[in-house]
């Protein structure tokens, strides 16, 4: 019962009261969409699809091989999406713990419930960012008379130089790559980040997340978890890509591991600073 | 209920903030913690509150061990230095949000406690517009509103005017009459001695002495 009350409290103060962050994120997604549009129009006049815009933002980049003078092109939209959401969800738990949260936690009588409520709130908060982004891309595509198809267009296929049949028709396995994997990655990283805040300062925890994102973009390596969040690194689209089934397992384990380790740590955690 | 410290040591990083403290705070009494800034008073209050646990030693609330049998004392009101509330809400709403967690008091109780601390009308302002004294009064209100068995007040007279100090004294006496066990810290020795049944003197984390005001017994 107290958990429900905590959760309601967290939804109110950790999500609803943070509406400015969601508004800013919404605005940036619209900018990203128009950046995508302007790039495509300058290439060729064609009917783009909804999935094109999702691939453009969440697809990441193909493997970077530093040979022949090729420079590393940062997948800034993919990177921005993750580091922004991770930034927006970084501080709520910690801020609450050193402020008003101290008044709520001792009234609850349970550290575990307080922690689990924060984890659920974190999950919900990340989910909301993605729902907003998918919803906005759908609306934007519809407004500019794009194709509402869930398959990637030929033009986009050529642009990404994938040249594989997987992109020819609506393919739920590919869509899973584009929709689920980036979401799972951000959720697991945000939970890990929250747990790390119990060991180090939030800034250090955030720097760690950013480094993981950048390393993921630079190296195609199944150990660097961000690779699973890039459709253009998936073994369904490129021959030496990473296996998304392993990715799903890794991310779920990382998320659960973070929740459990955080819970164990928080049971003995010294709640200091003002309150 | 008695609060018992048994050889309690608390380290924060490499610093020993409470050093092998053993004492008993008797039920239904007012115990004053006396010591200079950084002596460890607030840490002792946090240890009683369950916000921190000892590095070694034990803290018992009644016969329950904190950190093992219970995470926090079952019935406790706390006001530690600089109480934090939600800026976008008024005083009443802040108390309502807190009261909703336990759901043991109603709207009338909240109004009553706001009246008691002198925030009956000004409590309708947003918390961000509160003066320091008003913040302090709201902190006291939050601590006492659920009529807790244990009441922890860290520097409750800070930022308060003369009337406010008298109000705190009155509230503390009423709370003791009600049966609460009160732990209090205050820089003003006179106030501390006026109110306390027993004073625990702390220096650099160590208990230097425990005495009843006016007559030193140890």
Care to describe what's here?
The complex is a heterodimer of chains A (275) and B (218). Chain A is mainly α. The two termini of chain A are 25 Å apart. Chain A has helices at 2-15, 19-43, 50-58, 76-88, 92-98, 101-108, 111-143, 154-159, 172-196, 202-218, 244-267. Chain A is 66% helix and 0% strand. Chain A has one domain. Chain B contains six helices and ten strands, in the order E-E-E-H-E-E-E-H-H-H-E-H-E-H-E-E. In chain B, strands 6-7-8-3-9-10 form a six-stranded mixed β-sheet, with helices on both faces. Chain B is globular, with a radius of gyration of 17 Å. The mean pLDDT of chain B is 92. At the A-B interface, helix 1 and helix 6 of A face helix 2 of B.
Q: How is the secondary structure organized here?
A:
The complex is a heterodimer of chains A (275) and B (218).
Chain A: H1 2-15, H2 19-43, H3 50-58, H4 76-88, H5 92-98, H6 101-108, H7 111-143, H8 154-159, H9 172-196, H10 202-218, H11 244-267
Helix pairs in contact in A: 1-7, 2-7, 3-9, 4-10, 7-9, 7-11, 9-10, 9-11
Chain B: E1 3-12, E2 15-25, E3 30-34, H1 41-49, E4 56-61, E5 64-65, E6 76-79, H2 91-102, H3 107-116, H4 132-144, E7 150-154, H5 162-178, E8 181-185, H6 189-195, E9 198-203, E10 206-211
Parallel strand pairs in B: 3-8, 3-9, 6-7, 7-8
Antiparallel strand pairs in B: 1-2, 1-4, 4-5, 9-10
Helix pairs in contact in B: 2-3, 3-4
Anisotropy-based shape of chain A: globular
Largest sheet entry of chain B: 6 strands, mixed
Structural class of chain A: mainly alpha
Residue stretches of chain B low in confidence (pLDDT < 50, at least 5 long) are none
Q: For the report, how would you describe the main beta sheet of chain A?
A: none
Spatial shape of chain B: globular
The number of helices of chain B is 6
Low-confidence stretches of chain A: none
Strand content of chain A: under 5%
From the alpha carbons, calculate the radius of gyration of chain A and give it in angstroms.
20 Å
Largest interface: A-B, 26 and 30 residues
| Fraction of residues in H or I helices of chain B | 25-40%
Please give the order of strands in the largest beta sheet of chain B: 6-7-8-3-9-10
């Amino acid at each position: 019962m107290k958990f429900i009350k905590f959760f309601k409290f967290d939804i109110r103060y950790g999500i609803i009261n943070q509406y400015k962050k969601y508004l800013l994120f919404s605005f940036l997604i619209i900018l990203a969409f128009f950046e995508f549009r302007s790039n495509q129009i300058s290439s060729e006049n064609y009917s783009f699809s909804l999935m094109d815009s999702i691939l453009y933002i969440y697809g990441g980049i193909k493997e970077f091989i530093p040979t022949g003078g090729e420079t590393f092109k940062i997948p800034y939209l993919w990177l921005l999406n993750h580091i922004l959401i991770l930034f927006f969800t970084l501080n709520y738990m910690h801020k609450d713990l050193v402020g008003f949260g101290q008044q709520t936690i001792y009234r609850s009588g349970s550290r575990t419930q307080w922690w689990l409520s924060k984890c659920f709130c974190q999950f919900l908060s990340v989910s909301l960012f993605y729902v907003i982004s998918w919803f906005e891309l759908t609306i934007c595509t519809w407004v500019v008379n794009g194709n509402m198809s869930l398959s990637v267009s030929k033009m986009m296929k050529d642009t990404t130089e994938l040249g594989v049949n997987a992109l020819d028709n609506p393919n739920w396995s590919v869509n899973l790559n584009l929709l689920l994997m980036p979401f799972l990655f951000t959720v697991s990283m945000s939970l890990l980040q929250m747990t790390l805040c119990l060991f180090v300062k939030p800034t250090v925890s955030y720097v760690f997340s950013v480094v993981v994102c950048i390393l993921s973009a630079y190296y195609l390596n199944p150990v660097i978890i961000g690779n699973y969040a890039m459709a253009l690194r998936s073994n369904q689209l490129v021959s030496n890509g990473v296996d998304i089934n392993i990715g799903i397992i890794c991310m779920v384990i990382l998320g659960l591991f973070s929740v459990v380790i955080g819970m164990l740590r928080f049971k003995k955690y010294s709640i200091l600073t003002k309150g | 209920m008695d609060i018992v410290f048994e050889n309690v040591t608390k380290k924060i990083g490499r610093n020993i903030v409470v050093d092998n403290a053993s004492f008993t705070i008797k039920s239904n009494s007012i115990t004053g913690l006396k010591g200079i800034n950084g002596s460890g008073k607030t840490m002792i209050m946090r240890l009683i509150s369950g916000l921190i646990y000892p590095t070694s030693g034990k803290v018992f609330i009644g016969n329950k061990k904190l950190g093992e049998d219970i995470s926090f004392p079952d019935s406790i009101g706390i006001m530690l230095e600089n109480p934090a509330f939600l800026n976008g809400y008024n005083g009443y709403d802040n108390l309502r949000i807190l009261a909703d967690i336990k759901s043991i008091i109603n709207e009338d109780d909240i109004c009553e406690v706001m009246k008691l601390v002198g925030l009956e009308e000004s409590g309708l302002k947003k918390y961000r517009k509160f003066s320091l004294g008003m913040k302090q009064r709201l902190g006291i209100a939050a601590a006492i509103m659920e009529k807790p068995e244990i009441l922890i007040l860290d520097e409750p007279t800070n930022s308060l005017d003369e009337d406010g100090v008298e109000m705190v004294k009155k509230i503390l006496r009423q709370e003791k009459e009600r049966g609460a066990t009160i732990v209090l810290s205050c820089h003003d020795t006179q106030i501390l001695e006026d109110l306390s049944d027993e004073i625990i003197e702390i220096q650099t984390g160590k208990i230097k002495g425990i005495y009843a005001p006016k007559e030193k017994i140890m």
